[in-house]
Amino acid sequence: MPVNLNNPIIAFSPQNTNNLDMKKRYRNLILLSVILLSFIMHFSFFSRDLMSIHVWRQTQTQSTIVNFYEEDMNILNPHRNNRGNGDGIFRMEFPLMQWLVACTYKVFGEHLVISRLFMFVIAVFSILGMYRMLNAVFRNEALALMGAWAFTFSPSFFYYTINPIPDNLALCCSIWGMALFFEWRMKGKPYQLLVSGFLLGTGALCKLPFILCFIVPVIYFIIQTFENGFSKRNTGNAVIHCSFILLPLAWYITVIPQWKGNGIVMGMLDHHVSFLEYLDYLQHNLVSNLPELLLNYGSVPFFIAGFYFIRKRKAYKHSFFLLFLAWSIAVLGYFLFELNMIGKIHDYYLFPFYPLLFLLVGYGAWNIYSMGSRMARYIVLVLLLVLPLTAWLRMQNRWEPSTPGFNRDLLEYKVELRNAVPGDALCIAGNDESGFIFFYYIDKKGWAFSDDQLSAAEMKRMITEGAKYLYSDSRIIENDSNCRQFLDTLILERGTVRVYRLRSGKGRP
Question: Which residues contact 490 (CB under 8 A, 6 or more apart)?
């Protein structure tokens, strides 16, 4: 007979945990210590500019924040800098996070450190949410603390803790949405179900893949109906909670048709990746990204142990196991569908895995700790204590100015490059394949080019449409006889970057 879904998930725990409740002050002290340690480890990086892995995504997000602040606080109108002479409105994920940071700019002024601090606050709530979710699922505070500690020092999460990307808020909302859903099952308070649905909907709005979290309440209400029959109460709860999925659905149904050349929509149906490349991506994510970036090598033993103890304690017989199984299948399906876009480097695409991964990590860590062996306890404690060190060693070089992940001269001479021409002047800028990095560092709008590809005809058109200056690190374009006719005066040269005033577009094409 299946276990009643209204019961706590005791079957997932190694023993009845009623006597394991920690004193509130000890619990709060541990959580505070985790947050304080993370803050100290990030402190020297708060003042650093944007750089390193996925700096294109960070500069895109930060530019949207600045454009909200400087141009238009309408949350429905996120602007990008690579806009030509247009308004630059480009809608992808719902820009709630970017808009909220822009609101803080209205109070404190435009400072990148505010964006980083805002991201850190989001990360703090994610850590606390992970603790609440694990505690709601397992009814075991020690287990929840272990899982939250391990999550804090996931190298990938540690890196993005202070970096402006919308996935941070999406993850935070989704973790809390799941935590409140399971707390609702314990306490039955209607507001918990309502807020859970709102947060899950908000998480999916901020980043579409997190819509997969809704699979848990959907499966839950379906199982309730099968086991207990149709009831107005269960149906009402299902409608209240799951109606929040309409928010992200409405947004993405509206904006996705505007996306051009975006492989995210097509996923594996976009056949530009061969089957062998696909297998190579799969192998890399399994043997490198998963243990090294998502988990942390110190958490790998806990992760593996989680699977072992699920089998040993027959946790799979608990009805709630179906919820986690369905959730896991949904997230794995997303991963396989988007693998050609995830490739080997897009680790932030894997954020939807975090709640499931650290459910297993916390469960495995606690089960090893509770085996009764002193050696087992020492092993768990040592592995937990080594996690901050391994996260630091893996990620601290990502804020190294000598290797920013793009033309270093943009970073080194940022202020001079920004001040070289009027702030409102439209510019042509490159090389920049991303279309975001160059414009972020020179703080201008206009047209981006890449791979030394800018024809005289294109330059003439851009000048006709309002381009006044050229920012370039391409000697090929500058020395091209057809393009050189449009170069008037060399205003500034810093490192490999040159700034030219442009002539009118009356030259030959």
Answer: 498, 499, 500
Cis check for the bond before 431: say yes or no (omega within 30 of 0).
yes
Is residue 246 a contact partner of residue 202, using CB atoms and an 8 Å limit? no
Task: Render 301-320 in DSSP notation, one character per residue.
Answer: HHHHHHHHHHHHTTGGGSTT
What values do phi and psi take at 491, rounded to 5? Answer: -85, -40
Strands of the 469-472 sheet, one edge to the other: 445-448, 426-430, 469-472, 497-502, 487-494
In the block, residue with structure tokens 């899982």: 147
| DSSP at 421 | S
Question: How is residue 340 written in tokens?
Answer: 């050609």
Angle at 163 between CA 291 and CA 417, to 5 degrees: 130
Angle of the 141-152 helix axis to the 24-42 helix axis, nearest 10: 0
Q: Are 421 and 444 in contact (CB under 8 A)?
A: yes
> Which has the closest alpha carbon to 391: 213, 196, 154, 205?
154
- Whether the CB-CB separation of 358 and 147 falls below 8 Å is answered with yes
* pLDDT tens digits, one per residue of 217-274: 999 999 988 888 888 888 999 999 999 999 999 999 999 988 876 667 666 767 677 8
Range 140-144 average pLDDT: 94
Is residue 414 a contact partner of residue 441, using CB atoms and an 8 Å limit?
A: yes
What is the per-residue pLDDT for 275? 85
What DSSP line would sit under 352-365, residue for residue?
A: GGHHHHHHHHHHHH
What's the pLDDT score for residue 263?
63
**Which residue reads 């060693």 in tokens?**
393
Phi-psi region for residue 374, left (φ > 0), alpha (ψ -120 to 50) or beta? alpha
For the chain, give the percent of residues with pLDDT over 90.
81
Q: What is the pLDDT at residue 286?
A: 94
pLDDT of residue 16: 43
Paired sense of beta strands 426-430 and 469-472, if any:
parallel
Work out the number of other CB atoms within 10 angstroms of the CB of residue 241: 24
Would you say residue 352 has pLDDT above 60? yes
Reported as a pLDDT band with limits 50, 70 and 90, residue 9 is: very low
Question: CA 442, CA 368: separation in Å to the nearest integer?
Answer: 53
Closest CA to 65 of 35, 23, 106, 29: 106
Element (H, E) at 147: helix 141-152
Maximum Cα–Cα distance for the chain, whole Å? 84
1-15, 108-122, 365-379, 485-499: least confidently modelled range: 1-15
Q: At what angle do helices 215-228 and 167-187 cross, to 10 degrees?
A: 20
Residues 144-169 pLDDT 10s:
999 999 999 999 999 999 999 999 99
